[in-house]
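User:
I study polymers; will you set down one protein's sequence and backbone structure tokens?

Assistant:
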Amino acid sequence: MLSNLREIRHDALSGIARASSLQDIEKMRVSYLGRKGKLTEVLKGIGGLEKEERKLVGKSANEIKKELEKAISEKKKKLEGRGVKGKDIDITLPGRTPWVGRRHPITICADEICDIFTRIGYSLVEGPEIETEYYNFEALNIPEYHPARDVHDTFYLEDGRLLRTQTTNVEVRVMERGKPPLKIISWGKCYRRDSPDATHSPVFHQLEGFYVDRNVTFRQLKGTLIYFAKQFFGEDIKTKFVPSYFPFTEPSAELYISCSVCRGKGCRVCKHTGYVEVLGCGMLHPNVFRNVGYDPGEYTGFAFGMGLERLTMLKYKIDDIRLFYENDIRFLNQFGP
């Protein structure tokens, strides 16, 4: 009986070693460890042996059973690993469609807006997100006592610098490095101490643009922004400019468009006025020119700034800004590639 067990062990281990597929290894398991397997039959016949022989044969048979179970398990894992690496592919399985990523809706709108302005001669530049008080406030004619500079509104760092609150910082840096004519747009992240809700976020995106040259007029500013609004929201959109105030522009205005949700009929989004504000703009303040070494008597210019989240929400009729930052695939998959 013991010699028979040794023969079964040798044959089984040899067969397991030669197995080249999961089907082969399953056949070996059934042949030796199945209900009618060779080793199983030996185990069934142990009860008819003498006491001493039964003890020896039983011990040996159980050891061989554990050895074969371990060998089968290891061989099975090895064969499954080959399949993962592509060396053993089951062509009968259905194919898997690869998941294709999509651009974020804010990126889609930013690219579209940049394309609109580059078509009329604007150049795209970048600026730092960690900024000094000078470039973020002082050079833009924002005085020390202005509420925007308060720690309740701005994220200050330990070294005295801050996270920029607007992309307007790019204006000063570009004008310091070059001379007019300058037609620039820039977009990126900005940071303010806002409590998150449906319309506010401490992190948001802003797009800034400015044009500086001799004899630049407010009429050119209006024409540029009306062109942008109709390109971005549609030719049937209506526009109007409302007087406003910004420290770095004088005169200043806000651009309103007919509500893209109700098309000017009046709804909750436009507060039943038919119009919504989309950006701020104005003629660059003479103090800004002086801070960068330009002669305000020789040069004029205009600037405009828009919140990309706001424009994206209006374009796609999104009612909660927090959706942009939750990374919900169901939301993101609704937009273009």
About this structure: The mean pLDDT is 88.
